[in-house]
Amino acid sequence: MNLSSLDLNLVVALRALLEERNVTRAGRRVGLSQPAMSAALSRLRRHFDDDLLARTGGHYELTALGQVLLERTATACDLMERLFSSQADFDPATESRTFTLMASDYAVAVFGAGLGRLVHAEAPHVRLRFTQTPTTVVEDLSVLLSTTDGLLMPHGVIGDMPRTDLFHDEWVFLVSETNTGVGEELTRDQLARLPWVTYQRTYDAPAVRQLGMLGIEPRVEVSVDSFAMLPFMVAGTDRIALIQRRLAHLMHDLSAVRLVPPPYEAVPLQEALWWHPLHTHDSTHIWLRQAAQRVAAELD
Q: What pLDDT, on the 0 to 100 scale, is given for residue 189?
């Protein structure tokens, strides 16, 4: 398709129409009169050879294609906004903007807090926004990274995107202080026999997947969508859980658990900041990555 033949203003109009499902409200949202927005809808219908909005009773519903385009237009608008807000120079002391990073609660607790302190000290008008990493990150990686400023995730899950390595960590097991059946070390037999608490998205824990190669199938009793919940689900029970050592130390005083090493050589964790190639030469992102590297250097 020849982009030069398209009116990119129609992308903004399309998003408003699909989200508002009302011509008048969509026009008000983008600053167009009702006749002008109706004309935009007509042009979009001709382009896609589809009604996009179909009247049902006294209101409009999205057609099947309209449903498909709903998310794509939001992504396209976010991408264009990031593209045209790029700048040659970035002064952290005066600039005002928001950086959005996808991260697990582990990454936010261990690394994000330090990044927040640095940003507060050096860029007082800059805001940080951390969002939970979606479960579809592997399937939609390029699209997700194109609409955010970066992704905090360890190696071994994704690839083929620019990154900067941040800090190392290692895996340890959590055991309740009341669990007298486990001594200073766990055995492989106990790993297979005792009930587990696991992080719900197993791709974030390659050391758990490693157990399969050792012939150990964890008997999962509880799964949670937060690494920080693991100690509380272990305390006072016979359960065990695999957790990152840095997070375990941060939370040790909050729950009655103790740490024991794995009875096998667990693959270490290398956390990294990943981003879309379109951000590589942008001055604002260069500053963000350099700030992240400084925070990581203090951790390691």
A: 93
User: Which of 97, 80, 76 lies closest to 284 in space, CA to CA?
Assistant: 97
How confident is the model at residue 101, as a pLDDT? 96
Q: How far apart are CA 131 and CA 148, in angstroms?
A: 10
Within its chain, how far is the Cα of 166 from the centroid?
16
The dihedral through the CA atoms of 13, 18, 22, 28 has a sign that is: negative
The answer to whether the beta carbons of residues 65 and 116 sit under 8 Å apart is: no
Name the token pair of 243. 């957790």
Mean pLDDT per 10-residue interval, the chain, length 300 residues: 69 90 90 90 91 86 90 78 68 89 95 96 95 82 85 88 96 94 92 91 63 86 92 96 94 88 91 91 91 93
Contact 63, 54 (CB under 8 A): yes
The per-residue pLDDT for 91 is 85
Structure-token pair, residue 182: 């486990």
Helix, strand or coil for residue 60? strand
Instruction: Report whether 257 contacts 174 (CB < 8 A).
Output: yes
> What are 216's two structure tokens?
């150990």
Check residue 82 and give its pLDDT. 67
User: CB neighbours of 6 closer than 8 A, spacing ≥ 6?
Assistant: none
Residue 122 to residue 136: CA distance in whole angstroms: 34
Residue 207 falls in which region: left (phi positive, over 0), alpha (psi -120 to 50) or beta: alpha
> What CA–CA distances, in Å, run from 262 to 40, 187, 188, 193, 259?
62, 8, 9, 15, 10
User: What pTM value is reported for the model?
Assistant: 0.73
